[in-house]
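Problem: given the chain below (175 residues), write out its structure.
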Amino acid sequence: MGTLPVAGKEKEEVKRTNEIKTAIPLLEAIDIAGKDVSADALLTQRELATYLVEKRKAHYYFTVKGNQPGLLEALEFYFRDRGQPHFVEHTPPDHGRIETRKIWTTTKLNRYLDFPHVGQAFVIERHRTNKKSGESSLEISYGLTSRPGKQAGPQRVLQVNRGHWVIESCHLTGQ
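Solution.
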């Protein structure tokens, strides 16, 4: 008797459930003490944050999206009137596009947010312009890190966030 493949929405749910359940066992095999672990929104989970900081003595950089609606709402509200960015990065015009990244960070939400070990929250704006077509886009992403501002300023937070997208999975970077 064979197994039937799971399709559509059910397949996506199995994938999500498996990613969450396998993250901690996969990290058990890696020396992550003192390292930064970045994860996308799916893995922005209280259990994983507690595990990383308390048990493994590592730090997290998590993206916050709709799967954490309370966190997302608080970050959107706080950062709605951002003012001047804390750091701006202009990347070389690679791959036919020009990119500018802006970041704002805060520690003012640390006690307010219902999330373990928050060192600071951040918002990143990514402006992209296609050199051939002239089309431009704006992407806004929110996040949390367990690293306090004294350990990771806006430039470092942006660097870790940008490095996350090199390979889509959990990532480890040195301090």
